[in-house]
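In the current project phase, we have settled on a layout for protein records. One protein thus recorded is set out beneath this paragraph:
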Amino acid sequence: MKKITTRPGLPTTLLVLAFIFQSCGQKQQEETKNIEKEVTVKSEKPEYFLLRPSIEKAFGYSHAVKIGNNIKISGAVSIDDEGNPTAVGDIEQQMKNCYADLEKILKHYGCTFDDVVKEDIFTTDMALMLEKSGYRAEIYKNGFPTGSWIEVKGLALPEFMVEIELEVYQSK
């Protein structure tokens, strides 16, 4: 007696493969739907902070805005509470005054200079800024943030020699 073996024909093979691919496709669609359900984006309202409200309202800006874990801090300049320039002609003291104001804003949000991820410095005298920039090591004790230093023709008032703005990431 002779053994007869039959192979599945082409239509049967194609039908089986189609079933396998359809099953995989359905499984992938179900996984995608589950993932889509898990991803929810929470809409967060900006939180504005005014360090010197009357001055900032008069000039039309907020000193800081927080959205989620990110905080953008407008450029700090060396001024008193009435908006008058301070430390005129002394770039190092102006820089110290800027950092003192920036620290107040950071504290408002429960942050420190360790949370700063970007610092941009604008100055009217880059050579003098470079000469006096060693002070920054007292501010950034655990490493410097990224950022840019830019020499400009002028700042908001002619007495200003430096302006410092920050971007902060609050990990808490």
